[in-house]
Amino acid sequence: MKKQSFHIDGAKVTVYLDGPAWDGKPSATLGAFSCKTMQSGTSVLAQAISFVRDQGLNQIIGPMDGDTWHSYRFVTQTDGSPSFLLEPGNTPDALEVFKKAGFTEISGYFSARVPVVKTALTTPTATTDFTIEAWNGTHPEALFDQVFNLSTQAFARNAFFKPITRDDFMAMYMPMVPMLKPELIFFARQPDQTLAGFLFGTPNYAEGPKPTSAILKTYASLSKGAGQHLAHAFHKAAAAEGYETAIHALIHDDNLSAIRSASEGADIFRRYGLFGLKLNG
Fold first, then answer.
1. Is the pLDDT of residue 133 over 80?
2. Which residue, among 194, 217, 196, has the nearest Cα to 205 in the 3D structure?
3. Which among 165, 263, 255, 273 is positioned nearest to 218, based on CA atoms?
4. Among 14, 39, 250, 271, which is least packed by CB within 10 angstroms?
5. Residue 72 DSSP one-character state
6. So what's the pLDDT on residue 156?
């Protein structure tokens, strides 16, 4: 990963020169951005933009730590409720610095919450195309190997997708294994036992050792309807485990899951944006 970091007193940013395509063209990304003042943030961002231009690129995406497998997005709206586990965060100044530099929102996302007793009652139509099973908690390397294979297929259709190596994927996710709760992780399997989809849920440990909310963090499927069945299994399990609230985390505004979240009566409490800048000349 080609990158260069810039620092000014009270501000920093990292430029990734091999970011994902935007509108079919190569882009740089700006990640790890922070600033203590608007002035320092503006200065360090100007350095980063100048560097990108000097490298012959004229599109920049941010904030993004190189790709969508890593941290990206700014919080753009919030009701002030506490951050949940693994949620991106930023100061209002950071967002304003990007906007003043000419960045505009190119993709929107949201997080919503809903009482699990409400969603657990909504049973999807039965199917023989796949079966839903919870992870038994064993062989995590084999688990993540399957998840990697399905993720690279399912997410390849997403905007700003960039492939990642299996080794890099494992390096990111294997350290999370001690935090995983098997009863909140589900798989959809076809009759021949091939993987049709997966869902990763986790307790919201940001609340402390005994959280009352569970996060529907990530799911992907290659079979129509698998996502709805996986989500139902998650909500039902969360209710059985005594969680009060489900957090539907970081959903793209145009995703089918956004429609499903709304239909389940989930209330949006945070919005996020990914921003872009096209340079002239």
1. yes
2. 217
3. 255
4. 39
5. B
6. 87
Contact 24, 159 (CB under 8 A): no
The yes-or-no verdict on residue 42 having pLDDT over 90 is yes
Helix (H) or strand (E) holding 233: helix 226-240
Asked whether the predicted pLDDT for residue 74 surpasses 90, the reply is: yes
| pLDDT tens readout for residues 223-243 | 888 999 999 999 999 999 999
The residue ranges of every structural domain in the chain are 3-108+273-278, 115-271
Q: Where are the alpha helices (DSSP H) in 134-189?
A: 140-154, 166-173
- Tokens 């309807």 sit at which residue? 225
pTM of the model: 0.93
Which CATH number applies to 3-108+273-278? 3.40.630
Return the SS3 of 147.
Answer: helix
Return the CATH superfamily for domain 115-271: Gcn5-related N-acetyltransferase (GNAT) (3.40.630.30)
Question: What tokens appear for 19 in the block?
Answer: 């970011």
